[in-house]
Amino acid sequence: MLVLARRLNESIIIGDEIEVVVIDIKGDQVKLGIKAPKAITVHRKEIYDEIQQENIAAVSSDFKPDALRGLSDFFSREKNKPTGKDPDKK
Fold this sequence. Notes:
With 90 residues, this protein is of the alpha+beta class.
């Protein structure tokens, strides 16, 4: 783990696109500002951990591959279903 000391209004750069700025320091709490592209998600660690647990639970709960095959078959039939339009007419 890299450990850096920063003062108020000082920042660190991560890669080429992420900047973390010390916004405020009060007692044992530090407020950080994070500048990152919208495509990069930024979460507090406890929220990130919850998201990961929810994703694991969603994948492992009663996953039925046959249901996905059924959906695939359904959409394939719908895609190839005649529309009633004459393909030669414009």
